[in-house]
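[Meeting: bench + compute handoff]

Bench side (C.D.) handed over the final construct sequence. Compute side (W.E.) agreed to return the predicted structure before the next meeting so the bench team could plan truncations. Sequence as handed over:
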Amino acid sequence: MSLAVTALYAGLLGLFYVALSLWVVKVRVKQKVASGDKGDPVMQNAMRTHANFAEYVPMGLLLIGLGEAQGMPAVATHTLGAALLVARVMHGIGMGRLPHTPALRGGGATLTFLVLLVAAIANIGHAVL
C-alpha cells in the first residue's frame, strides 16, 4: 500500500512547519524571550500560531492518509491534501500578523474544519461500506 499522495502533502506541510518554527525562533531573538512567552504578546502570538498548526495538521494528515489507504481516489486525496495545505498557510499568515488578518485566519480555519469533516466522513463511509 502506497500513500504517495499523502506523503507529498505531509512533506509540503512539514516544510511550512519548519518555516513557522524558524519564525518563532526569530521572534524569540527579537523579543529577547529565551523560553515561554514572558507575557510578551508578540511572542504569545507566534507560539500560538505555531502550536495551532501542530494541533490540526496531524489529524488532517492522518484522516487523508487513512482515506488514501482505504482506496480514496487520487483526485479526492489531492483535493483534501491541497486544501489542507492552503488552509494552514492561510491561517498561519492570517494569525501570524499583528493585528491578525481575519479573512485569512478565519478562512484558513474554516477550510481546515471542512477538510477534517469531509475526510472524517469519507473514512467512516469507507469503513462501514
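W.E. noted at the follow-up: DSSP finds four helices and no strands in the chain. C.D. will use this when planning the next construct.
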